[in-house]
Amino acid sequence: MKKMSILIGIFTVFLLNCFVLSAYSKKQNVYNLNGTSWELIQVSRKGKNIVIPKGTKITINFSENEINGFSGINNYSGDYMIKNNSTLSADVATTLMAGSENLMNIEQNFLDILQSFPKISYSANTLTLSNNKKEVWTFKVLTLDKKLQNTSWKLLNMDGKDISKLISKNENNITLSFNENGINGNSGINNYFGDYEIVNNNIKVGPLGSTKMAGPENLMKVEREFLELLENSKKVKLSDQKTLVLTTDKGKSLTFEKIYQ
After folding, report:
1. Is 138 in contact with 128 (CB distance < 8 Å)?
2. Are 75 and 68 in contact, with CB atoms under 8 Å apart?
3. Global pTM exceeds 0.85
4. Is 239 exposed, middle or buried (0-12, 13-18, 19+ CB in 10 A)?
5. Locate the DUF306 domain: which residues (predicted)?
6. What is the per-residue pLDDT across 130-167, written as a single tens digit (0 to 9) for each?
7. How confident is the model at residue 169 (pLDDT cuts 50, 70, 90)?
8. Count of beta carbons in the 10 Å neighbourhood of residue 235
9. Which of 53, 77, 199, 226 is the most exposed place for a label (fewest CB within 10 A)?
């Protein structure tokens, strides 16, 4: 009898541990979706692939309780929850741009499924949304390099110094833009350009070139420091899709906020 009680106790503890680990795993899976970005690669209905209009770009970004992205023509943003680790609940608003009929149709279809409490499943590389109409939207994960392409950023802080205290409101913002061919921007006085490469969270910048305009000495000093830190940046971090931080080997950093166009 005593042995039986011990066995029952051990079995009960085992079941409780399994329950806790399962709940923890589910919580971790949901948390791991935060900070990720995805791009549409396929749409199917009742097992048959639907033709996606050429040039379509539909993306989803998850950040804490916020969801945003590009829906084909417009930018969208809003709140989201994942219920029971399987159902997406999203409520979004969009900009009001118009486009071709094909793009407007797929955009509306995407926004419909996004806000229809679809089933959601995801792995490290793939995310799917599906509904009771047997419609499945499949997305691939976007690497940091892909996330940054065709984005622009405004410098907020340089090596711990608030940039608004270093340059006046009447002077140019210091900016950084990424595209497929390289980076470019305004460094305070001059326009600059150059190459970059991102692998995981590592970045290599340069060599950089720029125009050769002169300006006030204090602004030229800020410009020189910015370009030096930019070219010596080794690490890159994107936070909440809105903040970009570049860091050198010596721990000096450049902090940018996203420019929404």
Report:
1. yes
2. yes
3. no
4. exposed
5. 32-140, 146-256
6. 999 999 999 999 989 988 988 999 999 999 999 999 98
7. confident
8. 15
9. 199
Q: What is the spatial distance between Cα 185 and Cα 166, in angstroms, rounded to a whole number?
A: 18
Contacts of 11 (CB under 8 A, 6+ apart): none
Structure tokens at 169: 């409101």
Q: What are phi and psi of 203, to 5 degrees?
A: -130, 140
Q: Report d(CA 91, CA 112) in Å as an integer.
A: 10
Nearest 10 degrees: Cα torsion 56, 144, 180, 196: 180
User: Does residue 134 contact residue 45 with C-beta atoms inside 8 Å?
Assistant: yes
| Location of structure tokens 């000096």 | 252
| pLDDT score, position 99 | 93
Mean pLDDT on 80-87: 91
Nearest to 142 by CA among 78, 76, 82, 58: 58
CA-to-CA separations, 36 to 31, 32, 141, 235, in angstroms, rounded: 10, 8, 7, 18
